[in-house]
Request: fold
Amino acid sequence: MSQTPEDRRPPLTPQLALRVTVVGSLALALFAIIFFRLWFLQVLSGDQYLKAATVNRVRDIAVPAARGEILDSGGRVLVDSRQSRAVQISPPDLPHSPRGRRIMYRRLAGVLGMSTRPARCKVPGVGVRHLATIPCDVAKQLAILPYANVTIKTDVRPAVQYYVAERQNQFQGVEVQQIYLRNYPLHGLAAQLFGTVGPINATEVKDKAYRGISQNSIIGQSGLEAAYDRYLRGRDGTDRVQVDALGRPTGDLRKSSPVAGHNLALSLNVGLQRVGQAALQQSIDSNYPANGGAFVALNPQDGSVYAMGSLPTFDPNQFTSNLSKAQYDKLVSKTNNYPLLNRAVDSAGPTGSTFKPITATAALQSGEWTTSDTYDDTGSFCTSPGVCRHNAGGGASGVVDLVNAIRYSSDTFFYNLGARTNIANPIAHPQGGPLQLWAHRYGIGQKTGIDLPGELRGTLPSPAWRSHRDKLELECEHATGPFKGHPKQASCGIADGRPWSIGDNINLAVGQGDVQVTPLQLAVVYSALANGGTVVRPHIGLSIQNAAGTVLQKVNPPPSRHIPIDPLYLETIRAGLRAAASQPGGTSADVFSNFPEQVYGKTGTAQYNGQQDYAWYACFVPASATTKPIVVVVTVEQGGFGAVGAAPVARQILSQWFFGKPGPYTAGNSKTL
Amino acid sequence: MTATAITPGEETAAARRPHMFPDPLLLLGAVGLVVCSLVTLNGATRNAVRGQPHFYLERQAIYAGIGIILALLLSRIDYSRLREFKFGLYAVMVALNLVVYGMPAVQGARRWIPLPFMQFQSSEFGKVLIIVALAAFAVDRSRRLHERRTTARIMLLALIPALLVIPQPDLGTGMVYVAIGFSVLFFAGTSWKQLTGLTAMFVASVAIVLAGAPALGVHLLKPYQVQRLTGFLNPSHDPQNQTYNITESLIAIGSGQKTGRGANATQTKLNFLPANDTDFVFAAVGETYGFAGAAVVLSLYALLIWRTLRILTMSKNLYGTLIAGGILAMLMFQVFVNIGMTIGIMPITGVPLPLLSYGGSSVIVTFIAIGLLQSIYIQARIASTGKSRALLS
Reply:
């Protein structure tokens, strides 16, 4: 085979030698760069990268603690927790590209059978967006607490858990966790009392009361769940696991076990609660347009609450599954009359004639009236010629002493006491006269201190209160002070600008006008009447127990104070209350005269502008008459006269308390305020 | 062996066995890298296939075995005969890279022809084919190398398959083709002026693809490709997305420190490091065996590159020099781009690290290239002994 010139071995030309040198030097330079870079990474910055690698492989998984149970006095379970499988999204672990997230959300919605159709989604602090259910939930949570898990769906089937767990790369940031869901077997019974639980929010995270708990915690949001949260909550455990790049656990490193919450025993009597709610419902149904109400039953000696109900009610179980916007709107809507509201402590208003024992105490203690003084009830009372007030229905009781004035609920009699207990010089004594002093001592205008959050203080009208309102009205009209920045208005409706007058005190004397009292406050007042002047501090919690039932801590708050009422005066007022509930002509006699126990009771009919009257009834059976003393207060919104709307409810509660059965629903017909 | 008996003069030389031995240092480098690969894969892929801790290890060993046998066989053949088949080889290379477009896609890519025992990656095999073919075209026109037409034609012959490979998509291998073409011209003796012109055109086209065309609304590269190419400039910008790979790779290498984390190499073993058996295998080495391990691997590559340069200079003819030049470009491009990528100084392009990355096509093709180098070495030794004997007699 002949060799072509190209086949001949070329000598190592200078040109080739140069080029080989160039490439060789290039390779040498590149190797040098790599070595220096490796030196920098591995030797100089090695510690820092080692730290990053260590962090990379561990993840803390919260193991939720079981929330404590709520029990009744006999140990029966009223609220407990059940285990559930929940699909949660951990926002920091989501795919980072918006497209990846969209795909993942769609996939997850398919697995969970949820809608992918975008709908209006109100994100707090961001505004209204157009998002499907899952991204909407995530967006809302991100706006509140960016690092908390978002629960997408609870009670999912085991198959879903396995499906997601086996496809972690397709479901980045999705976790299926065993969680505890609150269970309320009583449903609507005492719902507002127990309250609700929910994920901790941004303000609560910063709250001292919740220090050291994770952003994924479920805490009590209202009612007893919130009041006793630190006992019920328990402590979440953590599982520190080694994970691979897809977040799949590959081994346990350290474990801190969850500590279950303690149990809370209540003084609540479920039977009494059930009868109370049923009776209240019956009153609402039979007294159109009544649309709501509340009742409180407590022990006048120590303030422990036997029953406390509020209608309309709701099913707290709704809050444990994902509550839809529509469902929530129903719970806070005016049309449904705010079912979430616990009217026994969160709603205050004038009490009508049930206030009269306070006025009587003030008049007697101040010496403005004596037990034997009489007043001629002519049907009207005039402070000056032409300025007159009349009894309800225009009737006249004739010459009455204090006992009979309470028995018949004579308004003019108490107008007179109101006029007599008014402060002569309101500027010198802005806190008012004897009526304000004694109402204050009974606890009007102050919190009772019950173990429930959000209790209302109410209002006790006084000269100082009125001038404060007048000042607010002026500031509002001129857009100054707290109203700075608001538009100026001709009138804000806060006050009418007139100074304290005798009419204010006369209104207060009969529980009308500006006075605002919660049913619970009234129950505390009647407790003091029943027990001889001790203002109790009501409480629903009885004790904190561990799972075995051992009492760890007793809830037994001392009474707020004792008020020095002359026993004779107290006896006189009680005689009036007893007569009202038992003697002919007594305002609630036709409801209670045949009741076997000694009931001391007073009707009340509170007047509202533009609404039907609110019915009230406050009564007690004192320790002197029974071994099971009790105070019952009932109010029915727009329930009409107290004897008609409220007294029959109280009777059924008392009947259940003493005889174990509600007995007949007996409406009275007294038309007194 | 019969194939080497070309001329009567060489027959006697062929009978003298010592001259038929391949270059021991080159062989040492290649086998050393295979050992490193197996040791690293043993740690990195132990949990990759459930129940089969040695799944990748066994396969890589088999591929390397096949590769070594092919290399030894090839070293006995006179590479010069391949010149005659340049058109055929070039046509086969183009055809292979076209056939893959008719194959089922694997994770969105069409690069492989499924064979019973392995996935045949056309673009990998195309690398040796294009080296052998381009070198032959260059030798044919060695007298007219100064002409601009020669330069353009050879560059075009490299660009055509590159443009077939890039949309598979395999940007990295496409660029290897271009580097090979450039290297063949470089060692063939193309003037500096023309080489500079080529470089300028290359820089200009990169600028157009990355910046110019997108500004006009024409997207030649997929968004992820652009992200990868530019992401290394700013790795902390978007750690979970495209540059996630770089971040995890840096953590892996850095955490290896001087002597490595051994069994505690969590980045590698828990899959935080992506593609720890293929594109990012060097990071697995760096984490598991530290700076020391990385230095060993780098030394072996230095050995390989040094021997390639040496063989390039001792070749008995221009064809051998150019083949060695093409192989040199392939090795250097892949080694520096791949390692540069894992240590965060080069863009992310999916080129395997020769002999270290897991993958049948890559390992076998690299060994074929080693076989070609050995053939050049042996033929050079035979030619020089033949010459010296002629001088002596």
Observations:
- The first strand of chain A starts at residue 58 and ends at 63.
- Chain A touches chain B through 48 residues (CB under 8 Å).
- Residues 14-44 of chain A form the longest helix (31 residues).
- The CA atoms of residues 414 and 627 of chain A lie 33 Å apart.
